Adenosylcobinamide kinase
Amino acid sequence: MQNPPEISKTAFVTRVDSTSNRHLILVTGPARSGKSEWAETLAMRSGKPVVYVATAQVDPDDLEWRSRIEQHQQRRPCEWQTLQVPITLAVTIQDAVQSTCLLVDSLGTWVANFLDQNDEAWEITSVELLECLLNCPADVILVAEETGWGVVPAYPIGRKFRDRLGTLCRRLGAIANPVFLVTGGHVLNLSLLGSPLPDS
């Protein structure tokens, strides 16, 4: 069996220490914490044309989910471009233009769209995303859910989702700067307050 591709440690260091004008920002937090609003604020502050990358798959029969999506849409400036990208997130990031700011909301829904992949295929998919982020010329703001602070999910699919998203966020936290945690009505800059794990 062929081993999945790896990202070199030098690639991670290069991205973090880059002196270019591009930014890779991770905004994470629990449900209803305000993480999307903070990410939108950061996108507006970038001063660049914003491309909102929505990763959710829209189910026309799910009225509650449609209502959530509409709330997000009403909050965004009308001049922002919106792309529906439930699967090909890496390609979208790879094709981004340097003068733009991509706001990806959210990683959790993107991860959920790949739960049918086995572990080897998922590793390839996630590494591809990380490599595209390392080489993206545009600003990228990623919104991610914190799912591991509650009880252990009762079903295997829930545990798979939690573990995959948690691992992806940890790997992203090693290359993003800054990393924000939004919780309890406050925004915390983890890049200033915390210390990266040694193996990151």
Notes: The CA atoms of residues 97 and 153 lie 39 Å apart.
